[in-house]
Structure formats: structure tokens, C-alpha cells
Write the C-alpha cells for this entry.
Amino acid sequence: MKVLQTHGRRWCAAAARQTLGALLPVLLAAVGGLFHAGSSGGAAPYQPPVKLVPKANPFAARAMWIWELPRSNGGDVAAIIARAKLNGVHTLMIKSGDGTGMWPQFTSTLVRELHAAHLKVCAWQYVYGSLPATEAQVGAGAVVDGADCLLIDAEGEYEGKYISAQTYLKTLRALVGQRFPVALASFPYVDYHPGFPYSVFFGPGGAQYNVPQMYWRDIGVSTDAVFAHTYAFNLIYQRPLFPLGQIYSSPPVHQVLRFRQLSRLYGARGVSWWDWQEGTPRYFHAISQAVGSLPGVAVGRTVASLGLHAQGDVVVWAQEHLYAAGEPVSIDGGFGAATMRAVESFQSAKGLPVSGVVDAPTWAALLRYRPVNVAWVLKRKKVVAVTTRAGRGPRRSKASVIATVPASASLPDRGRDLPPHLGARHPGRR
């Protein structure tokens, strides 16, 4: 997302804790009942942790992102409501914070006005990872203001920051609870960012939803290609995907329509668009007009395979599941000989073809296990993981493992799937 120099009020940590402590129980009592928590610790087989009542899910709808409210219909809330109603927009994703600063445009008054018009309101914040606990307090502040959900916009600044991501999520969940709906909106091509801590953001206590920024025109690919690549690597994290498309940079309208059609083929229950202030009437019409199906178009739902010498967070994710399944393996983000032997042992135990490659059938078997909960540290002191076998079912982790930040965290980008200006702090830097 584009981000702007923060002005206005700053969040005071002490005041945040006091206010949140007083208001969050009331807020969560009102909203939390609409959502269902995930499976209990150690349950087998492992299932994705959160299932929402479809009508209550703010992501399962047509949604628009608002970056700068004053530049969206001139900041006229009544006009925004009217335009949303006209174009079937049910959820507004409004910027609420940048780093450690809250944005004054996101207020409880604004949220109440939009709620009165039967619109869902999600807050989104751009995060950097330098002061993650304070950033989490900023995110929780939007919950106090009445947000229905929170979107974490973590991009290049968070690459390699496993400990910061862990601190952010631990602090956030302590403030808003485990049930409050949180989504990660980040790079769509996981393999392009081997050092980004997807496994933390989507791990235990992390985001329940995945909103990848699938800006096909800026990436330089077709709409079909952006779906195929994004889904191949994101499906392994077992979070419902809600694609984020673009109506900025003047994409052809027929591509916007095809993006919507493909989202249906891939089973997405909601699509959002970046962004309101750059959405001309023709694009608002494009996201709302009736579109047909794509007869004869087949989509692949096969996940990407991992083999010897692979590196990155996808390897970390596979190793966390191998460890939980009782296979002794270092969680370091490198697919070396030891990891290959662990994969072969797992495949043999499950009656799978022994290839040493984490292919689609192997992923399916691995993902039945809850990933071991890793406490990331700069220097490992001890390992406290214990695994047991529950009858003939999957082994289940009884504790966490303390591990040093994976070596893959230092790997550089392998490509550019988001334009550099979308991470700029100043709107003029484009």
C-alpha cells in the first residue's frame, strides 16, 4: 500500500493499555460472538484455525481500500456511502495507522456513521517492524474505535524480521484477543521473498486471513498468471485467500472483469480493490457490473513443490510441520540433505512415494499436523519441544521449540512483485 507521513496524534502505550483494558471487553462482546475460534491446541488432525459465519465475515464481500480519506469523494462520508451502495461495496478498508502513529482520519465517529449505513469497516495499518509492540498498540487502537477487522500491511521493511513479527502478533493478540479477525496483506509471490516471515504471520496466534496484493499490471503479468503463481505458494499456509486487485495505474477494464471471474474459479468469497481515490466511475462500474463465468477455463489448485536446495520461508513452514510430525529436523529455512531424509522418512511412514520432495500429496499429509510453535530468538539457549503419538493419528506437539532466526531470513528478494512506490512513506514519492 502507499503510506503517508504520519501527522496528528501519537499513541501512548500506557494510555493504550488502560483504554483497551476498559473498552475491549465491551467491543469484543459485541463483535466476537460473530466469529468462531480455531481448533484447540494439540487437536488432530489439524484444521485451519478459524471459520466464520459467512454473513459475518467482512472479507467475504466486495470491498474497497481507502488510503487518504480527504481525497476520497473529498472526504464526504455521505457521498462515500452513496457510492458504495450504488456499486455494491459492503466493506471499506480504511487506513488507521502508519508505523507507531495512528491516523486521525480513522475515528469512532467515522466507524459509527459507516456502521449506521450497514457497511463493514476494516482498519489497515502499514508496519515497519522497528517498534513492533507499539505498532501492535496502534492496530489495537483501531479496534477500540470499532473496526470490524484489522489488516496488517507488512512489506519490504519486515523481510527478515521474524522476532519483530512474533512480538507484534503476541502484543496484538494480548490486546484484541485470539478471535478478532486479522488479515495479512502483503507480497503475493511468496517465493520472491524468501526472508519474509509468512510462517509467523500465518502461524499459531497469527492472522486468520490472507489478502495478497495481486497487482497484475504492475507486476507485469496477466490476470491468469497472477492467480496461478499466488495460489501455488499461498495455499500451503492454510488461510482463506481474499484477492486484492488493482484499479489504479489504468488497467484495461476487461482485465478487471477477468480478475473477478478468476476469483470465482479459484473459490475466493470476496475481492477487494486498491483504491478508492484512484477509482474513476468506469472502474467502479467494472467492479460492480454483472460478469459471466469463464467456460472452458480450468484453474490449477496444486501447491508448489519443494526439493533439495530450496530456501526460504516455505521451507521453514515445511520444517515446522515435519518437526510436529515427529521428524527430527532443524528449522532453518534450508532444504538440505537432513531435511530431505526427514521428508523421505515421513513419506515412507505415510505410504507415499519416497521422493524426498515435498509435493502436493506430501503437503496434504504434512498439513494435517499443527505446525510446531517456534519461539524465535537471536541465539538459541535450549530446545523444549516434545512430541507424542496419539493412537494411530498424527503426532501432536506438546510444547514450543526455541530456535534461532532461520538463516533464510537474510536472503534477498528474488524479484519484484510490488512496485517500490507502494511502500513509500510520502505520497509524492511515486
